[in-house]
Amino acid sequence: MDIAVIGGGHGAYAAAADLTEKGHNVRLWRRNRDDFRPVTEKQAIFFKDFKGTRKVKLALAGTDIAEVVRGARIVVIPLPATAQESLVQELAPCLEDGQVILLCPGTLGSLVMSRGVRENGCQARVIFAETGTLPYLARKHGPDTVAVTARATRLPTGIFPADQSDYAFKIIKEVYPAAELLSDALDGALMNAGPVIHPPLVLLNAGPIEHFDYWDIHNEGTQPAVRRVHDALDAERIAVREALGYGPPHFPLADHYNSSGGEEWMYGNSAHEKIVDSTDWREPLDLYEHRYMTEDIACGLALFVSVADWAGIDVPVARGLLSLASAILGRDLRLGVRTLEGMGLAGLTAGQMRKLLTEGVLV
């Protein structure tokens, strides 16, 4: 399949190399030409996983986004939610009828980007989708090298608009066989693991993160007290999902930490142990600029709290964590652009929201 991958981070490099090895025709685009040069000069990425290190030749590593997107059946975007709106302006003129735009994950970016491409003059009939997590646990080991610790074995995926799910999911399933179809894009957004796993790890480890040059939030930072906050926060997520009519599986975060079997989580069993053993997550963290704060909290957690408010469900742990992050950053994250209020959706009735999610009727 012809696939376009957009981005220059861990997930984009992992997707480009992995999907190429799976036999797809993959083209990769990155905005920053200087940082991309080590890849464009070789037209290849060095790929590390349990099989070792090898050089993976891409169909194209290019800086012309139109050339990369042209003819692709699916456009995979493993970028932070904070990059979605700025990407729209470059992506909109390149899109073609029938293309599937896969956000990994999305934080309801399906709705945001769908509206954005229309506002930027795109008339192509495209379908958006968003997953519950990145398809890879990955870290870059240099400007042209990426290491994958684990691949998603279950990848919950919501489609926008949902009435195009049959068409879009068939394409997604061919690229990611681990994909599991959800009801709609909001179902997908409320499956996003980042706003549950990362806020307690970042906020309850704020002291050591600022004090030490390197700190592994998944190792020393994951203590019983932190896990109890995880469980309470995840219980709130599941309560909101159930209130909105989304049924199981809910992919409870406890399964990620359960090394003794049980229900398989998104990255399979023993994923937490693989993260810790790899040591790739012992890294410097900028408490103010890292995507755990700017995406998972300022976008994802803020979205979750706004959805809970809209649904009339009390979420004191989520609201408390969001308040702590607001104090650290010096601004009220409940007023962010990725809340229902910020997206102009807070006034919708439940019926109007279902119509929007199902038919893509933008308000």
Summarize the structure.
It contains 15 helices and twelve strands. With 363 residues, the chain is an alpha/beta fold.
Word description of this protein:
The protein has 363 residues and is an alpha/beta fold. The chain has two domains: 2-189, Rossmann fold, CATH 3.40.50; 194-349, N-(1-d-carboxylethyl)-l-norvaline Dehydrogenase, domain 2 (Orthogonal Bundle). 42% of the residues lie in helices and 17% in strands. It contains 15 helices and twelve strands. The strands form two sheets. The chain has an eight-stranded mixed beta sheet, with helices on both faces. The chain has a four-stranded mixed beta sheet with strand order 4-3-10-9. It is globular, with a radius of gyration of 19 Å. The model has no long low-confidence stretch (mean pLDDT 94).
Strand content: 15-25%
Shape: globular
The CATH topology assignment of the largest domain is Rossmann fold
Whole-angstrom Rg: 19 Å
The second-level CATH architecture of the largest domain is 3-Layer(aba) Sandwich
Mean pLDDT: 94
Supply the helix-strand structural class.
alpha/beta
Unreliable sequence segments: none
Figure out the total of helices.
Answer: 15
Q: Tell me roughly what share of residues is in helical segments.
A: 40-55%
Order of helices and strands: EHEHEEEHEHEHEEEEHEHHHHHHHHH
* Span of the ends, CA to CA: 34 Å
What is the CATH superfamily label of the largest domain? NAD(P)-binding Rossmann-like Domain
Q: How many distinct domains?
A: 2
